[in-house]
Amino acid sequence: MATNTYLPHVGGVAQGVNRYARGLREIGHEVKLVAPRFPGVNWPEKDLTRVPGFTKLLGSEFSYPAMTTRSLTKLMRKVGVGAKLVHSNHPFGIGDAALRLARDAGVPCVFTHWTLYEHYVQNFIPQSPQAMQNAIVKVATDYANACDASIAPSGSARQLMLDAGVRTPVHVVPGAVDIERFACGNRKLTREFLGIDSSAFVVGHVGRLSKEKGLPLLGRAMEQFLSRAPRAHFLVVGTGNAEDELKLRLGRFGSRVHFVGVQKGARLANAYAAMDTFAFTSKSETQGLVLVEAMASGCPVVGIDAPGVRDVVVSGRNGLLLSADVAEEQIAAALLKAQDGLAASLRRGASDTAAQYDIVPSARRLEQFYRAVLMRRN
User: Fold this and answer.
1) HEC string of the chain?
2) Domain span including residue 312
3) Would residue 164 count as lying in a domain?
């Protein structure tokens, strides 16, 4: 399994690849990983090979291997001795070497299209022409067509891949979430630490705080909501290039807004548990694992009808799904509706939805996909 980003990075791809590996190992498979090395960080894991890499490219959380494709392929040949299948998680960097390894070894190569890269180019290079964004889509599409088959984390993502011109088989295999971990968060602990009353209504958000995640819209919506809900709080987990702008916009609400930075392990689970509703305004998702993490803690979602989000959020069952062209006033109104009692009625639906994404069942689906690819080769 090859990836350009991995733990200790806390992004969705890094977590998704880790859960792929964990689940497959739990059901008896041998999984070898190749991922970039993070300076000053030692993350021990069986069958994990780290390679030198550039981190935080263009101010983002993305990494890229600091090796030539030839050198990287040579290293991966040693790691991949006896491999029956190569699984790439990016269409460039380590992904290039993964495809070469598969061809050299005569085994299938599969690809998970985790990311809508064109949204990220627009964020980090705001004046990027449409031609550049189209070129990025073409890179991912050509890569998928060079592989034996691809995985889309959601039905929406699969349709985007087909619309872009992917001709090889595309299967939907959602990423996994450690349901037990997020279902056991301590609601009281986080609230006491932050000085939030036990009866206060808390809207939460977890993720990279960047423009392609819809943070400007979220900030405007929360400004209106907090103005109309004088006892409500906003809990924000994560960091990113839109953080300062969000803090400035919401600064007048003082101790009712809580920026706690990146959280991991029990602290992250406790943060989710402290929330009553999860607000999400991103339109750049292929799945949105944070939505499932929130639901695993029993927290319903107010989100936008966009790829990835619409595959998880069902209005009236586990949250509220708003139109793609929604304005901040409508988001604020939906949050007020949740505060008025709707959120409590949606908690059971949120937990039931999350159970479908647990690690071992997800690994079984991935295993079935691998078997189908191998059978086509044979």
Assistant:
1) CECCCCCCCCCHHHHHHHHHHHHHHHCCCCCCEEEECCCCCCCCCCCEEEECEECCHHHCCCCEECCCHHHHHHHHHHHCCCCCCEEECCCCCHHHHHHHHHHHHCCCEEEECCCCHHHHHHHHCCCCCHHHHHHHHHHHHHHHHHCCEEEECCHHHHHHHHHHCCCCCEEECCCCECHHHHHCCCHHHHHHHHCCCCCCCEEEEECCCCHHHCHHHHHHHHHHHHHHCCCCEEEEECCCCCHHHHHHHHHHHHHHEEECCCCCHHHHHHHHHCCCEEECCCCCCCCCHHHHHHHHCCCCEEEECCCCCCCCCCECCCEEEECCCCCHHHHHHHHHHHHHHHHHHHHHHHHHHHHCCEHHHHHHHHHHHHHHHHHHHC
2) 179-355
3) yes
